[in-house]
Amino acid sequence: METKRENFGSKIGVIAAAAGSAIGLGNIWRFPYVAGENGGAAFLLVYLVFVVGIGVPVMLSEFVIGRRAQSNPVGAFKRLAPKSLWPFAGFVGITAAFTILAFYTTVAGWTLEYLYLTLAGGFDKADKAGLTSQFSSFISSGPRPMFWQMIFMVMTAYIVLKGVKNGIEKYNKILMPLLFGILILLVIRSLTLPNSFEGVHFLFAPDFSKINAEVLLQALGQSFFSLSIGMGTLITYGSYINKKDNLSSTAFSVSVADTLVAVLAGMAIFPAVFAFGITPEAGPSLVFITLPMIFSQMAGGQFFEIIFFVLLAIAALTSTISVLEVVVAYLSEELKLSRAKSTLIAAGSISVLGILCTLSQGPLPKLSIGGMNLFDILEATSATILLPLGGLFIVIFVGWVMKKETVFAEITNEGSLKGRLKMLYLIIIRFIAPVAIALVFLNGVGIFGYGG
Ligand code: PFF
Predict the structure, then answer these.
(1) For range 142-160, the mean pLDDT
(2) How far is the CA of 289 from the centre of ligand 1 (A)?
(3) How many CB atoms lie within 10 A of CB 130?
């Protein structure tokens, strides 16, 4: 039975949904520690260059594929390149959706536990050793992190089940302004702490000697993860964009919003970190160990801690719904299942992988290879292998397989928009982006030996 495809109801809804996907744990949990580990401002500078030069064109390419084909990632390649091997690129995306959601819901679950602990006043000790042992015993404890992960998955599935307009668009339109409001409050609090300026300096005064090949590649990988590009999320969302909306300006606005949130997250976190005399290279535990320590010493700390973990949970939720939607769109369109059945199957099967991922932090030590547990493996492979590979397929497909006229017709809404930068866009997706992405990919599989 062919049912009519749903569309987003308004341009603002499209931007809220796509920005909701892009803005996530990647901006608030991952960006600050990756930036901290890679030179701060120097990292930010190359990150910005990659977002503008490569991220926006790749995002636009996903929108072009999705809206042209009016289909999920696998179906889109089938329609635009019938009887070819291209649908395989769509399957890379479906695989990435599984791996990303598995470890992402693990971390999202941690944010719920920390929100709960803050509300219940349940931190054992406010010193570093106490918080470190509390965090590591919690994440390795099994049932508890699994419980929160499942709660998170149920919330995600609930919104996806409601559909594109009444679920995804509606919730993003409420949650995204809330997220911005909370973030601004946190930035103000952080900047008004004594000695906060050192953190601002760290984020905005680049030391060019810090820029090396590894920083470049880390920044490119982070920009892919953060913009939600390379796995068909934005092909799927693009397929719901109204034919009258301007795809280029949408891609641009979403990328600006995503980058702004990463920078604001840096401005909420680094000034506070420096104000309390801590070095910023704190790794993935920055948010779950360093920040609770800072909140416990700050005036009004409990309030700011509550809104911080609400912020993280919202950011994560608007991203997880976009990833689940990829699999649900695939199942409902390609296997002709109902939305309810597709959501149940997608959320159920991803949860199995997600639970294994959570348990690999402790109760199931066998789930590891060469010192990396399943969680680490999935995080590393999705960011450094699957997304770059998917992104490479996408730009090659739009640059070299689709007809130039078709691509331009989609970008200009069949000639009704000018599309002034379309030649520049074409050069980027044909030449510059494939080369740059290939470098990230080779790094991811270790050919250049920088590791993932
Ligand atoms: N962009 C999200 C973040 O920064 O947290 C993560 C993500 C969502 C990656 C969707 C990929 C994706 F398709």
Answers:
(1) 97
(2) 23
(3) 16
Nearest to residue 437, comparing CAs of 55, 14, 15, 168? 55
What CATH number is given to the structural domain containing 86? Answer: 1.10.4160
- In angstroms, the Cα distances linking 238 to 89, 128, 225 are 17, 45, 18
Judge whether 433 lies within some domain.
yes
Average pLDDT estimate for 77-93: 96
> How many domains, the chain?
1
Task: Over range 282-306, report the average pLDDT.
Answer: 86
25 CA: nearest ligand 1 atom: 5
Ligand 1 environment, Cβ below 6 A: 21-22, 24-27, 100, 225-226, 228, 231, 233, 319, 322-323
Q: Tally Cβ neighbours within 10 Å of residue 349.
A: 13
Q: Identify the residue with better confidence: 370 or 343.
A: 343
Nearest alpha-carbon partner for 50 in 215, 207, 200, 210: 215
* Full-model pTM: 0.94
Q: What amino acid is encoded at 417 in this protein?
A: L
The residue with tokens 């990150």 is: 47
Gap from CA of 216 to ligand 1 centroid (Å): 20
pLDDT tens-digit series, residues 314-369: 999 999 999 999 999 999 999 999 999 999 999 999 999 999 999 999 888 777 78
* Rounded distance from Cα 171 to ligand 1 centre (Å): 17
Helix (H) and strand (E) counts in the chain:
22, 2
What is the per-residue pLDDT for 105? 98
The parent domain of residue 97 ranges over: 11-444
Mean model confidence pLDDT for the chain: 91
Could you give the angle at the alpha carbon of 199 between the alpha carbons of 198 and 203, nearest 5°?
Answer: 115
